[in-house]
Write a structure and sequence with these properties.
289 residues, alpha/beta, Rossmann fold, 7-stranded mixed sheet, 6-stranded mixed sheet, 13 strands, 38% helix, Peripla_BP_I, carbohydrate binding, Periplasmic binding protein domain-containing protein, Bact_Solute-Bind_Prot2
Length: 289
Amino acid sequence: MELPAQGKALGEGAIPAVLQLGRGLTQLLNEVIEHQQLSVGLNDVSQKEEDEIIDVLAQACRDVATPLIVTVRSNERVNEVLSLARSKGKRVVTLISDLRGDSRDAFVGIDNRMAGQAAAHLIGQLISSETTPTAGVLLGDYAFNCHEDREIGFRSHLRTYFPKIQLADVTVGGKEDLSDQTYIAVKSLIKHYPEISAIYNVGAGNAGLAKALEEHDMAEKVCVVSHEADHITIPLLRNGTLNFVIAQDPRAMLDKALEIAKPTEPSIQIDNAIIDFGIYTRFNIPRFS
């Protein structure tokens, strides 16, 4: 099976990175790989079916001496392939979204539960004084552990500190960053909650979210908190459709993932490498975007 690799060719000693991400973040990571000339072969599997992803992972795991960086939905088949490879000596590093403990050696990414809490704090401070404040939650895919952790952090913080806020959630699901499904989900959310004050986008498609808000003339009326600073979200920040994005430096993530994948001192074991995240507005666009 031919892999759609980007960045450095896998035959040139590159570490394979099998990534199931939204197109904005995938493009941003690939730009970092090319600009920094990192020894990473990026395999974008975001639009592939489960069987194809399993095939890609199995092929990437054949050479147990070469580490693997991976971001995929968590399921039994994925965990089985990776845990078997690790039992043979393969080193596996999860990036952005974690997997089961026996499926990987280390996780590199932000504290997603804390990120959800930060989103809740922003929204709570802004809308809790309203008479009947309502916040929408666009749920991505629970098979991505990062989405689940963000939602848990968001709900728990609102429940503890802003119990007055009513939550209205919509599950988008589907392939990662599927704009059309997000568009339909947001239109439904607005129909049922026309007085909605804020939306937290856990991991759905930002382009579809923006399109639905603009069609209902609500882009400037609803406070929106989303994730990632990329070629999709930055224009939406600049025009005011998104109010805040929670994001991390992709270069810092990749550098740390490579450092752990090929440690200079193998005896030193790292389970989690938590990367700092920032909260960005149109007034402090990050340079890494």
